[in-house]
Amino acid sequence: MYNLVKNMSRIGKKIIQIPDGVDVKINDDLIVAKGAKGELSIKLNPDVTAEIKEKNLSIGSKAGSNDSSALWGTYQALINNMIVGVSKGFEKKLLFEGVGYRAAVNGNKLVLSLGFSHPVEVIAPKGIEFKTEKNVIIISGADKHAVGQTAANIRLKRKVEPYKGKGIKYENEIVRRKAGKKAVGSA
User: Fold this and answer.
1) By CB distance 3.0 to 4.6 Å, which of 72, 97, 103, 138 could disulfide with 131?
2) What is the pLDDT of residues 36-60, one digit of tens each?
3) How far is CA 42 from CA 25, 69, 111, 126, 144, in A?
């Protein structure tokens, strides 16, 4: 019988270097990382193993399960993102364009004026911070998933329209512009 665990995951077999200032502990099936930017934890699947030797963390899979090789690389990436997040953090930048469009931070709220009859308020989830500069909204935090999801939720408040380019977009997003209607002269 062909054993799937022998097909090693390229991402899963990478060893994660634990940087200085980050404390990683493994308690049964829970991995906890503490660093300058906060504390994050992840519960391991029973088919995946983790082991710390000196300042290196390695992820492995248990033989006998078809799911273990599929989960191996996923958990390696999740744990690596967790360690990078508590040491350096993650950030996303959103640009907004439009006449009268404004953004301001009020405590843990982001208050947006997006051309509606009312201001739009976005409350920061736990561990997320907002900053604004001119027409840029900066979302930062230790949890990569939470930062990305918060940025996506803000972008949905006013997506970029393709005719004039008004709305909220990611910093490096390219918006395909459409030509408007052309006036047809009568002969």
Assistant:
1) 138
2) 999 999 999 888 889 999 999 998 8
3) 11, 18, 32, 16, 13
